[in-house]
Amino acid sequence: MKLSASALEGIAGPGGLLTGADVRARASGIWNPAPIEADAIVRPRSTEEVAALLRLCHEAEQPLVTHGGLTGLVHGAQTAAGDLVLSTERMTAIEALDPVGRTMTVQAGVTLQAAQEAADEAGLLLALDLGARGSCTIAGNLATNAGGNRVIRYGMARDQVLGLEVVLANGTVLSSMNRMLKNNAAFDLKQLFIGSEGTLGVITRAVLRLREKPCSEQTALVAAESLSDVMALLKHADVRLGGTLSAFEVMWNDFYRLVTSPPAQGAPPLAQEHAYYVLLDSLGGDPDSDSAQFEAMLGEALEAGMIVDAALASSGRERDALWALRDDVEQTFNEGPAITFDVSLPIAAMEAYVSTVRQRLAQAFADHHCWIFGHLGDGNLHLVVAVGDEEPATRQRVEEAVYGPLQAIGGSVSAEHGIGLEKKPWLHLSRSREEIDTMRQLKASLDPKGILNPGKVF
């Protein structure tokens, strides 16, 4: 580390600096139990302290990696010896909530769940939602442009933010805390930093867009026998529910069997022999009419042959049980080391893509498992592949099987998890040389010394 402990303590104040054993006692992430490999962790409390820290780092050319909830899946917050960590864990203030303008102003380290609960208490909804809600932070969500369970209706993380405050690599504070839905006064600079994975600046505060809280929620798990039927159901549900369709999650048969058979705790609400299982969720404004509309939509789908069976949640507990099946991804690790994937592609190309990936895996590995599930309504699939080990050479072959077919169909190697270190070698399949060159120019302009999250993305 190129900076003295006294200089860092002078910025962050009492308890703001961790070194030695206090650093090594922390894990690198919820999916990575290895100790953090960094020389120190600085825990600022304000934008001003972050700016002071970055001015020192810029002058000393000190590499710095920002840590939020450490829930990422692509090693985007991985550190190395000599790095300095900036943790947002003490920046947890919800500064303001405007029920009329439907905005919330928060510091970087506020967890998604805390922000959701604050909105809920005010009769409003923060639409962003994902499984790591209790640990992930707002700034982390924005830095990675997180997706989650409601993208089909409300969009990605970037669609939930109106204003942003960012500290640039040289310590300059770029404060654009816009609270208006419409603001076309030249460039929308916040978009540079949303999804940039901490490589262009450090997000310190945000103005979030809120919605009115729905008065009703309808949830069902249905079974279908072909992917064409699933696609027909997506169109049918979106039309018949009048814009209230909020989730459309699909599980292939192998994944459904896995999460509804021991040692999994989930019981199968529908028989296990069907090809596809779809979890539908609708958020509306009138409990009685919404329920009738939802049931009518399912009845029409059943009569038309789009679905062959259905289980309708009649309580919050039953709804949670259905979602628990979709979220029980950890069952895939019971077969040994597994490699997870997060891809997106045109919905119409999914059947051919899945068939191609399965063929490629079968040709490369005599013994393997491939479980598929995900946010099909958003064009986003998750694949988990187990082939016995995850050594670098093995991983390369698996990644070639999964990522290779995406380029020809205009797909993306990352739907919602970002690039980090893990997907860096495959970025060229989803972004042109000109796009990547422009990204590099932005990086060189905003971080000329390359100190922010070095080595990530490209």
CATH architecture of the largest domain: 2-Layer Sandwich
Sheet of most strands: 7 strands, antiparallel
User: How many separate structural domains?
Assistant: 4
CATH topology of the largest domain: Uridine Diphospho-n-acetylenolpyruvylglucosamine Reductase, domain 3
Description of the molecule:
The protein is an alpha+beta fold and 458 residues long. It folds into four domains: 83 residues, Uridine Diphospho-n-acetylenolpyruvylglucosamine Reductase, domain 2 (2-Layer Sandwich), CATH 3.30.43.10; 119 residues, 2-Layer Sandwich (Uridine Diphospho-n-acetylenolpyruvylglucosamine Reductase, domain 3), CATH 3.30.465; 112 residues, Alpha-Beta Plaits, CATH 3.30.70; 109 residues, Alpha-Beta Plaits (2-Layer Sandwich). The chain has 14 helices and 20 strands. The strands form five sheets. It has a seven-stranded antiparallel sheet, with helices on both faces. A five-stranded antiparallel sheet has the order 7-8-12-10-11. Strand 7 and strand 8 form a beta hairpin. It is globular and about 70 Å long. The chain starts with a helix and ends in a 12-residue tail after the last helix.
